Amino acid sequence: MCWSFWLLGVISAAFFTLQCSADNKHCPVTSDDAYVYTLTIPKSQELCKLQEQMESLLEQMNLLSEKVSNLQGEGGTSSVATCRKPLVSGANGISDSQITASTEYNTAHGPRLVRLNNTGTPWCARVMDSNQWIQFDFGRPQIITAIATGGRMNFPHWVKSYKIKYGNLTNALSQFQFISQDVVFTGNDDQTTVVINTLPHPITASYLRIYPVDYHAHICMRAEVFGC
Ligand SMILES: *[C@@H]1O[C@H](CO)[C@@H](O)[C@H](O)[C@H]1NC(C)=O
Ligand SMILES: *[C@@H]1O[C@H](CO)[C@@H](O)[C@H](O)[C@H]1NC(C)=O
User: Fold this and answer.
1) Where are the domains of the chain?
2) Which of 223, 181, 221 is nearest to 200 (CA)?
3) Ligand whose nearest atom lies closest to the CA of 113
4) Whose CA is nearest to atom 14 of ligand 1?
5) Ligand 1 centroid, distance to 118 Cα (angstroms)
6) From the CA of 207, which ligand is nearest?
7) Residue 71 burial (CB < 10 Å; 0-12/13-18/19+)?
8) Does 141 contact ligand 2 (Cβ within 6 A)?
9) Cα-to-centroid distance, 93 and ligand 1 (Å)
10) Strand ranges (E), the chain
11) Residue 115 near ligand 1, beta carbon < 6 Å
């Protein structure tokens, strides 16, 4: 596409050069023409760049709409994608030993305390950085559709946003993404209100890790995972 503009420039340049005298002082082209000429070429290049950008945008749009229709297809054919049984606590829940964490502030803030119904001190990390996680081991691959989180009921500590990783092997967990982007879920805004996030697409995994991204005062949280 852009070559045609370049070619035009080169041909015009050759044409005007041929018209000039040997010492280059007596060109039939007026200075005004030369001015127009030098302006035209950069404009063509700009137009070219815009055209290229538009083409790449159109390409990206096509890819996106393809992905969206694929996802719509998945949603339409899967009835289990919306199941919402609690997988951490309750009748189908897991034991305390199946809940682990990167760090704990001390044993009175251990990972087992992450359960959503805990009105006391929940899980609190020892280290405040983005490498902290709390992990749920479901014992077998489970369909996961949603996550609920809550803050520390007995103190103003909560997790404002988080990412998740999942998989069937703890040393090969995948970062949860949607349309090739890491998803940062909006977490809590106070100590008590539970915030539920439905995953933009369900996942099947034995392990799920919540990685707090941003937090209020300290990384402390309660959580539940839903699916079937
Ligand atoms: C909270 O959930 C756990 C796990 O299901 C259960 O053992 C515990 O009794 C519950 N606590 C309350 C106060 O409901
Ligand atoms: C985990 O294993 C199940 C059952 O084999 C499979 O359907 C699922 O895709 C696996 N999950 C991941 C993240 O590899």
Assistant:
1) 93-227
2) 181
3) 1
4) 117
5) 8
6) 2
7) middle
8) yes
9) 10
10) 85-86, 99-101, 123-124, 134-150, 158-167, 174-175, 177-178, 181-182, 185-186, 195-216, 220-227
11) yes
Q: How far is ligand 1, taken at its centre, from the CA of residue 84, in Å? A: 18
What is the distance between the alpha carbons of residues 104 and 101, in angstroms, rounded to a whole number?
Answer: 7
Non-local (6+) Cβ contacts of 189 within 8 A are: 158, 160, 195
204 lines ligand 2 (CB under 6 A): yes
Taking the CA of 167 as reference, the closest ligand is 2
Residue type, 78: S
204 close to ligand 1 (CB < 6 Angstrom): no
Counting from 1 in the atom list of ligand 1, the atom nearest the Cα of 93 is 5
If you search the block for the tokens 């007995």, which residue do you land on?
Answer: 154
Q: Which CATH superfamily is domain 93-227 in?
A: Galactose-binding domain-like (2.60.120.260)
Q: Which residues, in sequence order, are CB contacts of 78 under 8 Å at separation 6+?
A: 202
117 Cα to the center of ligand 1, angstroms: 6
Query: pLDDT by residue for the chain (228 residues), tens digit each?
Result: 444 444 344 444 444 444 444 555 554 444 444 433 333 344 566 665 666 766 666 566 555 555 555 555 455 444 456 899 999 999 999 999 999 999 999 999 999 999 999 999 999 999 999 999 999 999 999 999 999 999 999 999 999 999 999 999 999 999 999 999 999 999 999 999 999 999 999 999 999 999 999 999 999 999 999 999
**Structure tokens, 220:** 């402390």
Cβ-proximal residues to 92 (8 Å cutoff; 6+ apart), any chain:
85, 86
